[in-house]
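SECTION: protein entry
WANTED: fold as tokens:
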Amino acid sequence: MNRGLRFGLSFLCVAGSVAAIYNVLSDNADVQALAEKSACAPSPGNCRPQMTRLDRTPFAQSFEFATNKGTVSVRCARAAVLVGDYSCAAH
């Protein structure tokens, strides 16, 4: 039992580390597009967001956009801690 528990915990640590590295280093074009859409909501018609800041961590991505409404901050996070689909919200 003790050996199985150690193996399980080791596996979880390695899997979590791989997921964290993937979240920071992977291509984020789809997340950026989702963030741009959130920055322009609710009236995206004439909005052309220009990204001025990007912060990426294993848990979330934060963007800042200059829009015709002014500066908009958007935070995108996964549905679960390190996995799942991204959802974005403007602040």
